[in-house]
Request: fold
Amino acid sequence: MKLFYSPASPFVRKCLVVAHERGLADRIQTLDCAANPITRDATIVARNPLGKVPTLLTDEGPALYDSRVICEYLDALGGGGLFPAAGPARWRALTEQALGDGMLDAAVLMRYEAAMRPEPLRWAAWTAGQTEKLHSGLAEMEAHAADWGDTVDIGKITFGCVLGYLDLRFASLDWRAAYPRTAAWFARFDARPSMRATAPRA
Reply:
C-alpha cells in the first residue's frame, strides 16, 4: 500500500497510528507530495479529486480517502478492534472521532490563516472562533478523560493526534494548564509505541 503523506499532517498521523496498532506499518510506503490548498499537487488529484492527504493507494487498486475511511479500512485489514462493534461503544468512539476531526479542522484552518493568508487579509474574529472550537472540544475531553483508562480505539487515537498537533503548532495555547485530566491521559497515551513512531515533524 502507498500513502500520500505529509509529516506534519495530523490526519495522516491518525492513519499511521492505526497502521502501527494493527501491525501494518511495514506494509505502507509513504509518498512525499506537495499537498496544498492553493496550488494542488496533480499527482494526488489524479487519485483523489480533492487533492488532499491522506490518500491511500490500496494493493487492490482503488484509492481511499479521507482519514476516517482509511483508518477503518486499515483496522479491518489488521483484524479489527479499534472500531467497536455496533452498540453504545461504537457510537461513542465514532462521536469522539468526529469531535477530534472537527478540532483538527479548526486547528488546520488556523494554521493556514497564519501561515498562508497575506497578513492584511487575516481575520482575527474568524481565528478566535476557531480557537473557541478547540477550547470547547478540550473542555469536553476534560470532562471524560479520567474515565478513559487504557482504552485504545479510534476516538482516543484521534484525540491523541489532536493534542500532538496542538503541541506542534499551537504551543502558546498551553492547554495542559487548563485541562489537567486530559494532560494526564495524554502523557500515558502519547507513550504508546504507535504514537512515538508517528510523532509529527514541522
About this structure: The longest strand covers residues 2-5. The longest helix spans residues 88-115.
